[in-house]
Amino acid sequence: MAIAAQALETLGLSDYALRFLDELSGGELQKVIIAREVAKNDYNVLE
Prior knowledge:
Layout: H1 2-10, H2 26-41
Helix pairs in contact: 1-2
């Protein structure tokens, strides 16, 4: 979970952590999907 939280924080998306996907706008959804993929694949781009 720490990786996901770090990805959201780095991308400025911490406020979206507890929101459902259907509550996000199109642009917000795209950013959250990118953060999810970064966390899932554990990329080192966050350093």
